[in-house]
Fold this protein.
Amino acid sequence: MDKLRILGGQALAGEIQIAGAKNAALPILCAALLTDQPVQLSNLPDLQDVRTILKILMQMGLKVTFPKPDDRSVVILDASDIHTPEASYELVKTMRASILVLGPLLARFGRAKVSLPGGCAIGARPVDQHIKGLKAMGAAISIEHGYIQASFGEGHKALQGAKIVTDMITVTGTENLLMAAVLAQGKTVLENAAREPEVTDLAELLVKMGAKISGIGTDKLVIEGVAKLHGAQHAVIADRIETGTFMCAAAIMGETGADLLLKNARPDTLDAVIEKLREAGLSIKTGDNWIHVQIKQRPKAVSFRTSEYPAFPTDMQAQFMAMNAIAQGSSRVTETIFENRFMHVQELNRLGAQIAIEGNTAMTEGVNHLSGAIVMATDLRASASLVIAGLAAQGETIVDRIYHLDRGYDRMERKLAAVGANISRIQ
Ligand code: EPU
């Protein structure tokens, strides 16, 4: 199993190219199921989760072509010959986002069989809202032998437009229902919809494919179903969480110093993160598609609550906690989206952090320095926080189980090494 070895204390300086967003790429790849014409995507990140969803789609019969040799950021998807609208437990269990095939399969083929995702390290993460919404659109859904079996309701040749208000804001739930609604008969209104930029990116691709959607970027999406969608070309939006992760990596360097230019970024999707990092003392300049960050002094501790977009993202909570660990002062971080997303705390404490958990709040007392140790990654963003902590820790940090990191970061250690970090992958 691969590990990362980090020798902390090296200043960071240089340019980093931000990749396309994992959480936009996954639904967008599934949206190719909605048409029998080719969909061409660019700015696709090269990640384990992307490979997993491509495998699921290929098992169904979708053809995947990378037209440029040695470049996996451009892909052509052809769903003209889907023979098995099914996603098996073997693959779904490795990635919960596989549930995103359910809406498009059902909408286009009138039937789908998708394994129920199993447990998850960061919380229970049920998919009841996805199912509730599809049922409201007339789908007949049963759960048998661990699989969701879905079909058009009796006497129907398509899903039926409906008014759907989800009990909570759900990102993949909104995406699944949006992909189902674009081919439904009549009008669907999705209220309490997620406003995450990744949902908007998916909606923009769907519009290019001929879908009729209004209210994009708001919490009320109105969809007029169409009979057929066509092919399209689309560039995946920049990954705001990867961007924020490198900004935290800069901030934690404190007096050691960091000066990073993040290119191909989308600062307009990072308002809450940028505001908190400015409060921490990071100097931040932005243009349309770049962010320049600099630090020369110890960061200040910042407190926040995670919440749905445009508020502070849960996917940045762990990385900020690493920074808070060595920041000046104390901080309170409250996690409101997932019930068990503090697994990095014990590992950060192994590096010398002083973090105590009370319910869904973590209280951190900033220490003067962290000291390198062997730590274990438990989920994707937790892994990123350990890497960030390792960059600032004195001596050697080994981050074990980095397959979690590889699921969602496109060559993170190579990008960090290129700007001066002493970091390498070991077997
Ligand atoms: N929820 C339900 N029932 C549902 C759906 C959600 O109870 O049917 C609950 C969840 O258990 C959770 C809350 O609602 O407590 C919000 O979950 P949501 O459905 O929004 O999460 P998700 O769609 O499964 C996506 C991202 C996550 C990110 C969350 C929150 C993708 C592929 N994943 O998950 O990304 O943390 O939204 O923003 O888009 C990551 O990239 O590291 C990651 C975990």
The chain has 14 helices and 24 strands. Residues 3 and 400 are 5 Å apart (CA to CA). The two ends are 6 Å apart (CA to CA). The first strand starts at residue 3 and ends at 7.
